[in-house]
Amino acid sequence: MSNTDFSNLKLHADLLKNLSTLGYESMTPIQEQSLPSILAGKDVIAQGKTGSGKTAAFGLGLLQRLEVKRFRVQSLVLCPTRELADQVAKEIRRLARSIHNIKVLTLCGGVPFGPQIGSLEHGAHIIVGTPGRVEEHLRKGTLKLDELNMLVLDEADRMLEMGFQTALDAIVDETPKKRQTLLFSATFPPKIESIAKRIMVKPMMVQVTATHDDSTIGQHFFKVADYEQRLEALRLLLLQHRPESSVVFCNTKREAQAVADELHRVGFSVLALHGDLEQRERDQALVQFASKSVSILVATDVAARGLDIDALDAVVNYHIANDPDVHIHRIGRTGRAGSKGVAFSLFSDKEHYKVEMLGHFIDRTIVGETLPPQSVLGNEPMAPEMATLQIDGGKKQKLRPGDILGALTGKQGIEGKQVGKIQIFDNWAYVAVSQKAVKAALKKLGEGKMKGRSFRVRRVNA
Ligand code: AMP
C-alpha cells in the first residue's frame, strides 16, 4: 500500500468505498499533503488550483466531520464565483453520494433571493456560496451559523481580488470561534497572510511544490530564433496538437493583439483578451471561449484572470513569463487531476536568464525540443464546435436560461444537446449552439417569443 492510497486515511468506510466507485484510485499531491491534517481537525492553508483535487481534499474533510442526524448547517464553503460554487457543490454531492440524506445547498448572488429563503427553511448540512449573498442571508437572519464547525475559503486570493474582504469578515464574525478553518489559494499575497492570521489558529501550510506540476502537466520547451519563427512555431504546435481550447499567454497587451491578429489572418478561430479592450469586448471574448465558439484566446496574465475555465487542453507561453510563479500559475490552468494537460513554452536566446531561473524553480534542466515539421502548416486550423448567439435581452428583461432553452428546443426547434452554455448579463444574453444548428436556432429565436415578447438575436462573429 503506498502512502498515496486513500485507505491510509481513517475515512468512514462508506466515503472510502465511494471513492473507488468514482475512480479516485490514489490521492493527488494536495490531498496527500493536506488530508491527514484536515482529518485531524487542524486549520490548514493550502496552495490549490482548480484541477489539483482540492475540492475533494476539503470535501472529504467536511463530510468526515458531518453528523447527518443533526440537521443544522455544519459546514460553509465560500467561493469567488457562482460557477465555482456550483462545481464545488457538485463535487461534494458526488463525494457524499454513499451517505443518505445529506443536504448541500448553494447560495449565490445573481439568482433570485426568495427561493433561497425557502430552501433554507427546509434546512441544510452544507452551504456552498459566494460571500456577498451569504452575508446578505446572515444579515436578514435567514441563515444561522451557530452550529458551524467547518469553514472553507476556496480561491481566497480571488475572493479578495474581487473585493469580498468586508463580506468575509462579516461572515466569520457570525461563526463560532471554535471551528476548523481551511483556506485554499493559488497565490499568497500579504492580504492572504493577514486574513489567515486573523481567522485561523496555528494553521498548517501545505504547498505542493512546483516540481509536482511536471508530473500532471507535460511541459515542453522550444527554442526559437526571432519574431517570425516564434509565430511559426506557435502555428506548428497548434496545428500539430490541435487543442480544442487553448490560451496563448503574452507578456504585453500589444503582443497579445498582434499574435491574435496574425493567427486570425491565417485562419484560426481566435480572439485577443487584454486590458485595452472594452469591458464588453472582454466579456464577449470570455463568453465565446467558455462556450467553445472560439478555440484560442491570446491573453495577458491580468486579463486571463477573468477566465472561468476549469481545464484547458493546452497553454502556450509565447514568451516565458517574467516570474516563475506566473509561469506555474499559467500552466496550472491546463490538465485536471487524473488527466494530462500540456504546456508549450517558447524562448529565444535573449530569454536565457528567465529559462535558467525557471529551470531552477521547477528543478529541471530545460532543453529545447524539436518543433513539428513544416508540413503541418498545410493542415486546416481547428474549427470550433459551437457558435455563440447574442440575444438583446437579459436579467433586466427577466430572461432566464430556461426561457432561452425552451424557446430553442420547443416545437420544430433544435435538440437540447445542440445547446451549450447560456450566460445572462443585465441587458443581453448569450447562448451557444452547435455550428450545425445556427440557422435553425436563429430562426427559432427570431420568430418565437420569450416572456411574451420577441427579442433581437444575432450571431456573434469570432
Ligand atoms: P478540483 O481541483 O477539485 O477542481 O478537481 C479536479 C478534478 O479531479 C475533479 O473532476 C475531481 O473529480 C477529480 N479528482 C479529485 N481527486 C481525484 C483523485 N484522487 N483521483 C482522480 N480524480 C480526482
UniProtKB/TrEMBL annotation:
Gene Ontology annotations for the cellular component aspect, listed alphabetically: cytosol
Short sequence motif Q motif: positions: 4-32
Presence of keyword ATP-binding: yes
Gene3D superfamilies: 3.30.70.330, P-loop containing nucleotide triphosphate hydrolases
Record-linked InterPro entries: DbpA/CsdA_RNA-bd_dom (IPR005580), DEAD/DEAH_box_helicase_dom (IPR011545), DEAD/DEAH_RhlB (IPR044742), DEAD_box_RNA_helicase (IPR050079), Helicase_ATP-bd (IPR014001), Helicase_C-like (IPR001650), Nucleotide-bd_a/b_plait_sf (IPR012677), P-loop_NTPase (IPR027417)
Residue ranges annotated for the Helicase C-terminal domain, each copy included: 226-379
Limits of the DEAD-box RNA helicase Q domain: 4-32
Start and end residues of each Helicase ATP-binding domain: 35-206
SUPFAM superfamilies in UniProt: P-loop containing nucleoside triphosphate hydrolases (SSF52540)
MF annotations from Gene Ontology: ATP binding; hydrolase activity; nucleic acid binding; RNA helicase activity
Keywords in alphabetical order: ATP-binding, Helicase, Hydrolase, Nucleotide-binding
Family: Belongs to the DEAD box helicase family.
Entry-linked PANTHER family: ATP-DEPENDENT RNA HELICASE DBPA, ATP-DEPENDENT RNA HELICASE RHLE-RELATED
UniProt-recorded name of the protein: ATP-dependent RNA helicase DbpA
Organism encoding this protein: Solemya pervernicosa gill symbiont
